[in-house]
Every structure is written in C-alpha cells, then in structure tokens.
Automatic annotation (TrEMBL):
InterPro entries: AraC-bd, Homeodomain-like_sf, HTH-like, HTH_AraC, HTH_AraC-typ_CS, Tscrpt_reg_AraC-type_HTH. CDD domains: cupin_MmsR-like_N. PROSITE patterns: HTH_ARAC_FAMILY_1, HTH_ARAC_FAMILY_2. This is AraC family transcriptional regulator. The lineage of its organism: Bacteria, Bacillati, Bacillota, Bacilli, Bacillales. Keywords: DNA-binding, Transcription, Transcription regulation. Residues 172-270 form the HTH araC/xylS-type domain. It comes from Paenibacillus cookii.
Length: 279
C-alpha cells in the first residue's frame, strides 16, 4: 500500500509527502533514479541491495536506507529472499538536521534499528490517522517527529565538532539558557546545575570564551530586552521589570541606570538616549 499526501502549507519545517509498505517480488527494483524528497526505507524482513555514490550495501531485517533528494540511487530485492519494507517520504527545513541527529547523512545512509517494532507501529498509526480528518496533517507531522526522535535516540553518539572548543560549546549552552529563561528569577548556580558543571568551572570557561562573566551577560541581556519592551507604550515600567526577571521595580531601576546611565523612565521619555554601559 502507498498513500500520497498533499503539499503541507502549515508545516514547512517537517512534513510527510508519502508513506507505504510493500512485500516485494523477487528481484523487484527501482532506479537508478533520483527523488525530490527524503525517502527512508525500513526493512521488515528479507534481503536486498542498496546502491548510492558508487557503494553497494546488502541489507536485511532491522536495517534501512536513506534516499537524499537529487541523489542517484538504486535498490533491488533479493532474488531468493526478497525484502518487505515500509517507507516514509518527507521534506522540510528541519529534515536534514533531524536525520543527522539519527546519524543518517549522504556519507552514512544506512539505518540500524532492531531494538523494537516501533517503526512499524508508527506506520500503523499513520494509516489510522485517517480517522482524524480535521487534525490529520498535524497528527502525521507529530508521528514523523516521534519516529525520527526514536531513531536519534538509538543512533550513534553525535560527537562535537572538533573545531569547537569545550569553552565554546558550554558558552553557547549558557547563552541559550539565558535567552530562554531570562524572564525567570534565575541565578548563575541555576545555570550551572542545568548544564551539569561546577559553578566556578563553568564561570571560568564562559569568561575564557566571551571575555565577560555569566552574571554580567545575564544583566546585559535582561536590560537589552527591557529596552526593546520600552517601545510598547502599553507596558508600564513595572510590567517590563517583571518581564525581564526583576520582581522589584526599584532594583530593576537601579540596575538599569547602572547599565544605561539613566533611569528607565528617562530612557523611555527621552527616546533611547545613547548612554554608557558599565562592566
């Protein structure tokens, strides 16, 4: 069986284009040819070959292969023990990234997944999604995300880019945490616990990479967001204060003036005064 799906207008990041399942006849083949979307085959039983980039892979149950858009591939069922497989066609701006998380790339197109029958179960759930016509597109997208997350969890460990230093990796994690949680009453200790490093060691790595302290970066980020919020006339200074992690408006005004050189009220009324920034 095969089901083709309409172009998604709402899920540009990731969306299914088709899915299906087939018990192949002996010697059944496709290609050499190219596809215009990602196509992931998972072998449920039997054997066959997959060819791409001048390489040939003999594959069987619990394995699979990835076809990348615009890349010539050829695959063929075994003449004696032909394979049965299911497949998932998809596309989207996040597709390549999610596949890389699962260890699937042009250089490494072979899937190994024999821990359970979840892939077959996801296919069945996709078929059953016909029972939910109003929300089917979203349901199918969610199932595709879940399937790719299962593959990523069971895939090879993704090693950091050797060009990235440990200081750079942890510094980015600190920045990400602050950008997501600056509105909360977070501390440097909270950040260290989240990342899983000793507070002093993390502070040292961050300063090595950014030439500033975590606390200073947090304050600067909060004040920068506060300045952006000043554009919204419906927000009071108190609203802005609480929105950037300061429940005490007086403390917020003190910190703001230290960073910008003027009070929040004056900054707003006099229109983005160019002011000094303290370290």
């Amino acid at each position: 069986m095969i089901e083709y799906l309409p172009r998604s207008k709402h899920h540009a990041e990731l969306h299914l284009t088709q899915f299906g399942r087939e018990d192949c006849t002996p010697g059944h083949y496709f290609g050499p040819a190219v596809r215009n979307h990602y196509l992931l085959h998972y072998i449920l039983g039997g054997e066959g070959i997959f060819e791409v980039g001048g390489k040939r892979y003999r594959l069987g149950k619990g394995q699979g292969f990835l076809i990348i858009p615009d890349v010539v591939t050829h695959y063929q069922a075994d003449a004696v023990n032909p394979w049965s497989y299911c497949w998932f066609g998809f596309n989207g701006t996040l597709a390549e990234f999610l596949l890389k998380q699962a260890g699937l790339t042009m250089a490494s197109p072979i899937l190994h997944y024999d821990r359970d029958d979840m892939i077959d179960q996801y296919l069945q759930l996709m078929i059953e999604s016909r029972e939910f016509p109003k929300s089917r597109e979203t349901r199918l997208t969610g199932l595709l995300y879940l399937m790719l997350s299962s593959l990523a969890e069971s895939g090879p460990l993704t090693l950091p880019n050797p060009q990235e230093s440990q200081a750079e990796i942890y510094a980015e994690k600190v920045k990400d945490f602050i950008e997501l949680n600056y509105a909360q009453k977070i501390t440097v200790e909270d950040i260290a616990q989240y990342i899983g490093l000793n507070r002093s060691y993390l502070c040292s790595l961050f300063k090595q990479r950014t030439k500033t302290s975590i606390q200073h970066y947090l304050i600067q980020y909060r004040i920068r967001k506060a300045c952006e919020m000043m554009e919204n006339a419906e927000l009071s200074i108190g609203d802005i204060s609480r929105s950037v992690g300061y429940n005490d408006p007086l403390l917020f005004s003190k910190v703001f003036k230290k960073v910008k050189g003027v009070s929040p009220k004056r900054y707003r009324t006099e229109g983005k005064i160019t002011s000094h920034s303290t370290s």
